[in-house]
Amino acid sequence: xxxxxPPRGRQKRPSRSQRAHRRxxxxxxxxxxxxxxxxxxxxxxxxxxxxxxxxxTNSGKTHAALDExxxxxxxxxxxxxxMLAQEAHRRLGERxxxxxxxxxxxxxxxxxxxxxxxxxxxxxxxxxELLVLDEIQWADDDERGSAWxxxxxxxxxxxxxxxxxxxxxxxxxxxxxxxxxxxxxRMLPLEWVGERxxxxxxxxxxxxxxxxxxxxxxAGEVNRLHPGRVAVLYGxxxxxxxxxxxDRFLSGEADVCVATDVLGHGVNLPCETLLFxxxxxxxxxxxxxxxxxxxxxxxGRAGRFGLVERGHVGVLAGLGWGVADPDIVESALEPHVRLxxxxxxxxxxxxxxxxxxxxxxxxxxxxxxxxxxxxxxxVAVREWAFESWxxxxxxxxLRLRLDAVQRRLAQRGRHLSLDDSWKLVNAPxxxxxxxxxxxxxxxxxxxxxxxxxxxxxxxxxRLRDARLEDAEQAGREASILRWFxxxxxxxxxxxxERAAAxxxxxxxxxxxxxxxxxxxxxxxxxxSCGRSCAPWFxxxxxxxxxxxxxx
Length: 551
Known about the structure:
Shape: globular
Number of helices: 18
Helix content: 25-40%
CATH architecture of the domain at 190-335: 3-Layer(aba) Sandwich
Oligomer: single chain
Number of strands: 20
Structural class: alpha/beta
CATH topology of the domain at 190-335: Rossmann fold
Strand order of the largest sheet: 4-3-5-2-6-7-1-8
């Protein structure tokens, strides 16, 4: 991410507590290394069997892996998303009985003692009989890749099943040179259908755009032609809201679904035709063209085997503000990168990210954590400099979280144990929610100042007239509070029941506000004349010009 230049002029003098915190941090960095005993993860026993199920979306690799779990009668399925863990739990429960399947994520625990466990990767146990590790290419993810890498590098399972895109073949071969490879082919071919217009959208069509504003504006346009029969999916929606929209599309209540690229992460829809309304996206730094592997991952959602009989892919034309380049999409439907064994893919994934666990840091005082992170990173980089498949993550995000927690505690003269500090540093909290992280730290430390804030967040009556954005934010907060309630039941007045109620009501409010937004759009409509316009502008070009001339 680009560094912003600090503003010029006189800077505000740090407070006394901030100066004290900086002095303490500096002392820790200078002296803690004497007390640090760094260790690196390793496996005590090698797996007896490693099999890689690699192939594109809709090729049956996950179905085959779940068959193995059923045949074994015990084991672990670990996926990247709560929704995928829930989907595996549902599919397995319907086959062998829900009493035999557990669901464990950061936000929920269901039937924990069951012989088969469906979980998110971060919650997977480090040992067992059979591990099904899904979406193995996520090991190269900047933020979460280490959870996959840990299981590959140090997970002590008798058998390991690796699932993922064919692009991860180089990584699999480097991590497990003797792994058995099973390549899966797509069950239904994709057909290029070129350009389609809004008026030509038929039942079973999914249209993809790449921002929340674009999706909402586009859904409003589609709703004019399909009143009340448009489903919406985007990342900021609470999970229960996404499920409801998916169910509307599955049941036929909605004819068209408008979605972001959240569609590419395990959302199974009866999609016959998938159209790209845009072929550019903002990636956090700049707006750029979609990469071929991104297009292929999304396009692969068309033609789901067993749901529809064929898959069509094209672009949406004539929207006015959305720009979709048909050449970019059509060219991405055929893999073009040569992989080992005469296979073809869209990119090469040959590295896996790794970062420490608390047990690797060798400290017993939370004040030494920052120095230990610095020391571990230095040791790991030196140790794995010539390991072709291990890449040491930047630990700056962890250090920023740690600093936010420790500063908030220092302001109130509070302290946390080493274990509690580490849990908070690794909590599922986005960078824009660090204030809530500080509040949770104070709640654990027993500071009464945290309770009013948490009481407000858990008060569902505040959502009675909430805007869509506020309901989405409440859904994110509910997810964090569910995690917190599982770790610290009742602390600060947070219980799993209250957090779950907040999540449910936030999700319901999101769905109700979505209906209003789709049926009476505020995005993508000129505030002056009501004509269609780009969703990131309040006025169309014509009215903006009139307004500019009248100044």
